[in-house]
Request: fold
Amino acid sequence: MFIPGWALCLSLSWAVGAEAPKREPLTAVMGAMVMEVELLAGQLKDAKEHAFSGVPFITGTLAGRKVVLACSGSGKVHAAMTTTLLLDHFKPAEVLFTGVAGAINPALDRGDIVVAEKIAQHDFGDLTTQGFEPKGPGRAPNGRRPPLFIASPKPLLELAGKAGKGLTFEKVPTATGEHVPAIHHGVIVTGDVFVSSPAKKAELRKQFNADAVEMEGGAVAQICWHQQVPCLVIRSMSDKADASAALDFVSFAEVAAQNSAKLTMAILELLAKPPAPPPKPQ
Reply:
């Protein structure tokens, strides 16, 4: 049965838009796997455990910044559920997602980091006789429709750039010698599949100009976009999303997670610093 008031609610929310909610002076840090979050949880001060709808969270202080940590589990649905509970109960000022990913850009190697300038869901769209056509998520109950690519906030990107200066990461052994991981800014795509296919890798590069692929960041960014909460996804390459991806993941996921966590910690250190005072009038 159609409810007339529902249509009115949608049209009003689309036309007017909701004001950004008041947020607490703390940062939410999320990861998909326990391994990705434990690297940070072990350094928490004044740690306190919480649980909502069976989902655990830990609050405390990390690198001088008040934080809430959460392990979302794998995939977009788990990530969206955890993000929704996190935003509702803790109201963070921003969300950082840290973890590992598969490299799509051929210039990237295992251990390298991609900071998402923008992020998209590569498995959301139309499948027709002509093939798959990517599209952004449809309109939500609040009347808002996210774009295909959700851009990361400029202040967080600038903070990540500043935090990355001077950082050194553990060298990664390769067939041609030791690789020194570097930080890149680019496009990350998300889908509910672990990509270990050269054909799919080439498709993602062609359709999205993607640099990396993973399974949660796009869902987190979508929830944050709706709730007007700044969000930044940080991923370090555990594999090259090719036929060797599963074996590489086993070998390199730990060092990749450490690299991503290191940059995340550096960002938290900058967030913990008080803002510079305004210049004195002449």
Remarks:
- The chain is about 35% helix and 30% strand.
- Confidence is low (pLDDT under 50) at residues 1-17.
